[in-house]
Amino acid sequence: MATTKPKQNGDKNRKVPQRRCVGCGGTFDKKELLRIVRTPAEKDANGEPVPADSTAERILIDFTGKKSGRGAYICKKEECLAKARKAGRLKSSLECEITDAVYEELAKEIRLG
User: So what's the pLDDT on residue 44?
Assistant: First the structure.
């Protein structure tokens, strides 16, 4: 659950969102983690889902934490990404296939910090 931390300018406590890393399983403040999101499938004029050309186009790194879609969080450590990849945890969390290009993009972002 969320913990409380004092506000910088007041006496009141406020809740800090907590999220679980899919790699190591640790619980951290939401701001400390990297959010990966699977965007919703586009729909045609009849409301039917349009097949995506590539999974990589539907999987994004969400720096704002506000994009719509199914999200998963991961630590900004290469070890956590390796654990998540080996165990297929991103695939399970996002409920879709994850391409090598997506993992490479995530690794690049983690290295850049």
Answer: 64
User: Looking at the domain assignment, is residue 72 inside a domain?
Assistant: yes
What percent of the chain clears pLDDT 90, i.e. is strictly above it? 67
Q: CB under 8 Å to 57, separation ≥6 — which residues?
A: none
Q: How many domains does the chain have?
A: 1
> Residue 30 sits in which domain range?
17-41+48-112
Cβ atoms of 62 and 36 within 8 Å: the answer is yes
- Locate 113 and state its tokens: 């910090």
Name the pTM for this structure.
0.78
